[in-house]
Each structure stands twice: as C-alpha cells, then as structure tokens.
Amino acid sequence: MIGLGGVFRTNPVTRERTESANTMTVTVAQDVTGAGSAATVQIKEKLFFTGNYQNIDAQPANGATLTLFPGTSSPSGKVGKQGLAFTQEAFAGISLPLPMPENEELVSQSTDPDTGISIAFIRSFDAINRKWINRFDVLLAFGRLHAELASMRILCA
Questions:
Q1: What angle do CA 73, 77, 80 make, to 5 degrees?
Q2: Nearest residue to 6 (alpha-carbon basis) of 71, 56, 76, 52
Q3: Which residues pair with 120 in a beta bridge?
Q4: Distance (Å, rounded) from C-alpha 71 to C-alpha 76?
Q5: In a 3-state reduction of DSSP, which class is residue 59?
Q6: Could you say which of 79, 131, 147, 150 would form a disulfide bridge with 89 (CB–CB 3.0 to 4.6 Å)?
Q7: For the purposes of burial, counting CB atoms within 10 Å of the CB of 7, is it exposed (0-12), middle (13-18) or buried (19 or more)?
Q8: Confidence band, pLDDT 50/70/90 cuts, at residue 84
C-alpha cells in the first residue's frame, strides 16, 4: 500500500474526489532501487486522472512524496500483525459442471447446494492393463471481482 502526495482516489461512479486518505494498493512491477531519498517505483496498475476510467483526481507530480503504508508508525510491513477484511463482492470462487462421457461403466455428477461446487465421477475399465480406473474431477476458478473497493488490508504495529 502506498500514498502519493497530492493524489486522491475518485468515486468510480461520480468520479468525484474521495476525502479518505490517499492510499492505494499496487503491485510493484520490478525491484525498487533508490539513491538517498529518491527512488523510482514502477507499478502494474493503470492510474487514470481523466476520462471514462478515472480512478485518481490528479496526475502524480514528478518527485511527489511516496509513503509506504500511510498512517502507520512502523511502515516496513515486516513487523507487526496484518489482517484482511473483505465482503462477498471482493473475490469469487466459481465451479462449473463438466461434460460427461457416454458408454462408461459408471458416470455421476453432483453439485453441493451450499457451495455450488460440482464434482464428477467416472469409472471405466482399462482393457490393456486390465484394471479399473476411478476418476474424480472438479472445475474451479478463483478471481477478483471488486477487490480494490470491497477489501482492505489491516496493519498494526
């Protein structure tokens, strides 16, 4: 998490400046090297200060103050406890039913009503090796929905 001096997040709908602390979670693209009090940090996220995808209120100034873990007294991130809080809109885990073969000894597929996870079972006979084969398959995918709006990292010294 970083803070850029003079840059604030904007509301994704109204594109108006938020009055919360100017912090953003970013992914660093490569190792950061610095000399004295100056450093160049390349981040993967796109920052838009105008247009349809605006997510910050102003373009970061060259030489702007960069604060790691703003609002903490021990910003190293290596000491203290950290936590994660998120809502159902932050991340998703999705399972889909698989296509099932025909002409096998036993074919079955079930979906758990609570989690929505589908599991498929196939039993067939391998005539070359003369053995029964039992196979279970699950198709799962995990992804970010609105992690930047519906989750937060909690730091304490």
A1: 70
A2: 56
A3: 109, 137
A4: 12
A5: coil
A6: 150
A7: buried
A8: confident
Residues forming beta bridges with residue 156, ordered by sequence position: 81
pLDDT digits (tens, 9 = 90+) for 121-154: 999 999 999 999 999 999 999 998 888 788 887 7
CA trace torsion 60, 61, 63, 69 (10° rounding):
-30
In this predicted model, what pLDDT tens digit does every residue of 14-65 receive, in sequence order? 888 887 656 666 666 677 777 777 777 777 778 888 888 888 888 888 777 7
Element (H, E) at 114: none
CB-based contact 4:64 (threshold 8 Å): yes
Look up tokens 């196979």; give the residue: 135
> Does residue 96 contact residue 118 with C-beta atoms inside 8 Å?
yes
Dist CA 17 CA 134 (whole Å): 58
> Is-above-0.85 flag for pTM?
no
* Contact status, residue 122 vs residue 103, Cβ threshold 8 Å: no
